[in-house]
User: Fold this.
Amino acid sequence: LAMLAPTGLIGWDYFRALADQIEFSSKERVGVVYAREVTALLPLLQQQRLHSLQEAASGTASTALPAARQAVAVQAARLAAVQKAHGDELATGPAYARFTETSRSLPNSGAGVPTVLLGVANDGSNLTLDPEIDTFYLMDVAVVRLPLMIESLAQMRGLGAAVLQAGQMTPTQSRILIERMTELSAHGESVHSDIKKAEAFRPGLKAIVKPDEYKAALGEFLQRTETTVMRAEGLSGDAAQHVITANRALEAMAQLSQRTTDALDELLAARVARLEGQRNLNAGMLAAGLLLSLY
Assistant:
């Protein structure tokens, strides 16, 4: 009987620590739910921006713009539902309000606002503080690096097509393209490094997320851009082909984002299940021990 009090205190501390870990990782999964809706909206906003700019440049109504706007509206409604369900928990209210306000002025405000909202959701859901190697690096790929890369490449798609069509490029346009290419290269190196580190910790993960298609498509786009838009001798290339190559890279990035997000969520779910299993097993053993001591 003398051991009941200290045993109870030790058990309380242990189960409280387990409860904290379960709550922490469960909140990460809420962040994944939020991230899915934001990342799904990002390319739709980019497509709307592209058609809006093309319409403004040509002076004629874009036949593709109404459908693009409708797609944005549908996905924005899905994001609004997730914000209503989880916004307070993730503290995304101010960032979401800013996003909805600035998105009304597209394309002038750009489509980069959702990446800011995504960053707030990542922080509020504990994703950026993930404690395990494989899930941390998957998180960095899925909800940090790839969304930023997708936005940078989409800007290069529109701006590159515009200068190729015009046959000339201003110093400001050149600077922006160089900045976006630098960002793409830097984040691309981080994606490669992250997947390599995650694979070292959990062998077989690379085969699940399949990054090779993304690497090939991105490499093709960067090479084409260097030999057409950023050609030292001057602009040379077809604007339509530039857009096609960019779209292939964007689609490959979106697919990699989907696969890494799925893998991340599966690992988080497995962690929560493992922690809950430990809690239940140890609770049973503790209860049995207490009953035996009383007996």
Notes: The CA atoms of residues 25 and 271 lie 8 Å apart. The first helix runs from residue 4 to 58.
